[in-house]
Amino acid sequence: MEDGTYGYRTPIYMLNRIIRLQAVVEIITNETALALDLLAKMNSKMRTAIYQNRLALDYLLAKEGGLCGKFNLTNCCLEIDDTGKAIREITKEMRKLAHVPVQT
Q1: pTM (2 d.p.)
Q2: Number of H helices and number of E strands within the chain?
Q3: Where do the domains of the chain lie?
Q4: DSSP per position, 24-37
Q5: Buried b (16+ CB within 10 A) or exposed e, 10-48
Q6: Topology given in CATH for the domain delimited by 11-98
Q7: What contacts 87, CB < 8 A, 6 or more positions away?
Q8: Which of 19, 27, 36, 46 sits 20 to 30 Å CA-CA off 52?
Q9: Contact 85/44 with Cβ under 8 angstroms?
């Protein structure tokens, strides 16, 4: 339009839309980070439970060489990385990037 109003899409209208979009992105990022944190926590608990079960099996089967000896397994190393701390660091950075301070 010649008067600079762009129909109903005035600069103020567009600015408000951008601010709303910023808020939506921040909310989605925070919810995603929360979900990842919960998954990381669950992963750590599962890792602990798996190691406890393996320890119990090795104890019960100690006379037969543990779990590996009982089933004649050559590659029987159990190694589950605990990625919880790394995931929590990533989600912390996600929240920082998405956060838009209140502007006056």
Answers
A1: 0.72
A2: 3, 0
A3: 11-98
A4: HHHHHHHHHHHHHH
A5: eeeeeeeeeeeeeeeeeeebeeebeeebeebeebbeeee
A6: Helix Hairpins (1.10.287)
A7: 36, 37, 39, 40, 43
A8: 36
A9: no
